[in-house]
Amino acid sequence: MEIIISETKQEMGKQAAQKGADLIRKVIAERGEANIIVATGASQFEMLSELVKENINWSVVTGFHLDEYIGIEETHPASFRKYLKERFVSLVPLKDFRYVNGNDAENECKRLGEIITNHPIDVAFVGIGENGHLAFNDPPADFETEEPYIVVNLDDDCRRQQLGEGWFPTFDDVPKQAISMSIHQIMKSKHIVCSVPDERKAVAVKNTIKSIISPAVPASVLQKHPSIWLFLDKNSASGL
Q1: What is the pLDDT of residues 127-182, one digit of tens each?
Q2: I need a surface site. Which of 146, 192, 208, 218 has the fewest CB within 10 A?
Q3: Which of 4, 37, 17, 40 is closest to 234 using CA atoms?
Q4: In sequence order, which residues have a C-beta less than 8 Å from that of residue 45 and are 6 or more positions away?
Q5: Buried-exposed string 203-218: b where 16+ CB fall within 10 A, e elsewhere
Q6: Helix extents (H) in the chain
Q7: Are 57 and 51 in contact (CB under 8 A)?
């Protein structure tokens, strides 16, 4: 794991986007196309705003959505489909983007699982939650399932984070379940670019890097990945 610490989260986002873009361009040069995973949430604002500026042949890039709440419409302010369309998909001419629709969970997991099995991921852009989650795999995360997409229960810490970031008006409005890409599927990615700003993530960052690999700290599994870059700002790195 290579750790890069920036003074500001704006600088962090730029460096993460540049690394990810370099990796995507290299893959395209090698085989003419690329498959990527795109994360959402407040931690990805700066990275995505820089990634869309990069000189990439987006017409040969297929994107995959990491996770989505169950039971909210695409028009909801917290919808990650809405987030991705506004901050990424509408700004670059992708070959395709595969969204997660949270309204038909069982069939959606099966549908997306079949698609991603035929699209090995080259570059995954991810973040880490305040509770150490990776995608919506809250602790204790399922490290065993090989299903690419799964239905997960969101713990209270995760739901409080979503409320604190301003996505929902009250705690009771935060959904209790989501569709998430599984830990196993994320770890199958050839390269991982992980962006984690803000002091509220400092404990999760420390546990990700320093703790033993355990479902109790889902992101600790990243220690095992052979090609990962962890981008932090000075606040998220303050516990190291």
Answers
A1: 999 999 999 999 999 999 999 999 999 999 999 999 998 999 999 999 999 999 99
A2: 146
A3: 4
A4: 13, 87
A5: ebbbbbbeeeeebebb
A6: 9-31, 45-51, 80-87, 105-117, 156-164, 183-187, 202-210
A7: no
Alpha-helix runs per DSSP H in 6-63: 9-31, 45-51
Contacts of 86 (CB under 8 A, 6+ apart): none
Sign of CA dihedral 221, 218, 152, 179: negative
CA separation (Å) from 232 to 12, 129, 162, 195? 6, 13, 20, 6
The residues facing 63 across adjacent strands are 36, 97
Sole residue written with tokens 């409005």: 173
pTM (2 d.p.) = 0.95
In this structure, what DSSP letter does residue 145 have? Answer: -
CATH class of 2-233: alpha beta
d(CA 96, CA 147): 22
Summarised one tens digit per residue, pLDDT across range 116-138 is 999 999 999 999 999 999 999 99
The residue with tokens 């869309």 is: 52
